[in-house]
Amino acid sequence: MQDSADGQPDGTATVQFPRPGFLASVFREFHPDQGQGQGGGQGQGLGPDAADPGPAAPGTPDDGAPGGGSSGGAASGDGPAEPEESIAAHGRAAALTHHRTLTVQAEHDRLADLLRRAALPVSAMDFESQLRHYEPRPYPADGPETGSEAEPRWADFAPAGPATADPDGAPARRLLDSGYQRELAQARLAHQRSLREWRTRRAEADNPAVDESRRVHEAAEEARARAVREYNESLEECRRAYRLSEPAAVESLLERALAAAETATQDLPAPCRAVFRPLTRTAVLDLDLPPLDLVPSLTGYRLAPDGDIVPVPRPPADRATDYLRLVARLALRALQAADAVDTDEILAGVVLNGWLREPGTAEPLCLVSVDADRDALARTRLLPPATPYEERDDEGVYADAEQDEALVRLRQLGAAVTPDPYGRVGVQPAAQAGAAVPAAPDLSANEFAQLVRDLLTRGGLAEWSVRLRGPAGLVATGEGAPGSALPGRWVVWASRGAEPVSAEEIATLAEAVQEESAERGLRLTTGRFADEALDLTGEESHRHIHLVDGDGVSELARTHLGLPLAAGR
Asked: pTM of the entire structure?
């Protein structure tokens, strides 16, 4: 065992040499001429002063003095006992440290496997893939109809006569051929076996038990065919309801697809519920995120110089990065499952909220929220499992999070992601999975933009082009055909909020109409207009600006979409 500079054992050799007495044997190998005497031989080889004991001190008993041998024996017996126990204790502590580190490493391996499986492609669960097909199973004893089967004839089994060199020879000579006799015997056996089987089938055909077994088999096959037919009919009925955008049918299809997407990670429960809003043709998904303690908080364990087992914690940023990597894969998987199942393009967009539900907390915490339209979903793909991560030594602990493709694609969708999940920092949900006909403030940014577009395009405004869009509203241009309800080129400014629209906003819209070389402007709000704004539009210079308040938006939704809208709270 080696000593450190301060004379204390460093503990490095204790893991490798757990045998009692090993250290003493090492010193005996280095000093073979010492420690050979009787009594305190082993104890003398352990210290630097044991090389030359020197003369006995005055007053000290000599070898022949009484008690001299006994004191030397006590020193030699008690000296090695304490180091050997310390060595054994260090060995046990080192083994326990190694075992705990392996346990932590297993947790890291499980997380890596979950990250890989969560990124696997999602199979489409559309209606075509859910259709069932019936294939009849024949009755095991079925064969040719016994009534129409003739009795086996010997002529069908009899072998041809043997060829002879002399065609004019007697037939009896040909019958004595040994090869022909063997073929004849085999043919007779085959004929008898076939005749016996034919008679057995005739007997079984008249057996009532066989007839009953066949009837049971045919009834079971008919039931199987009927079950497949009824299932396909019900599936087709669901498909018709889905094409009519009925919420129950759309939600059923979405949740079935989301449940099928979880098959790759059944050991990681992440249920996802769906609510469909026919007003905006948007699905709102609520994804339950895995618990925070799924990501290991330790790198391993180490053995301290004093023998204590000390945990080695991970940097908080690394742990948060791993958790967000898993969350990003689960969110992208749910988005792709919803996009893949929508083969009839019923959905105009998807809103996904990832909720952390912890025991003991009254309200769940939203850690990620995505508001994606159809075009963005079409560009979204999961991270291929074989794509390596680029790691650079000159970047900080956030390098993996910035380069992780799943997180990058999630942010490209405009997702709001928590900066610190372990600090319980939440984000604002893009939309709440509430009623099928929500109020205007409950709509997401994409939902509100889709609602305004549907209202105006159905009113006759074509060639819709969004110029600006944000959480509060949008600015777009459109052009209506002559003779329609909205003829000419328009600049549309739509917003939602409780604050009344001021006269300054009306003046700004008038300037935008002039810059876009448009003919008219439309200011749409789910709230109301200030009196100054109403007075301004009454003037001759601003009569080309048209106003639609919250009541007007609700009336347009009822007229053009056939659905109500609660304009405000």
From this structure: 0.66
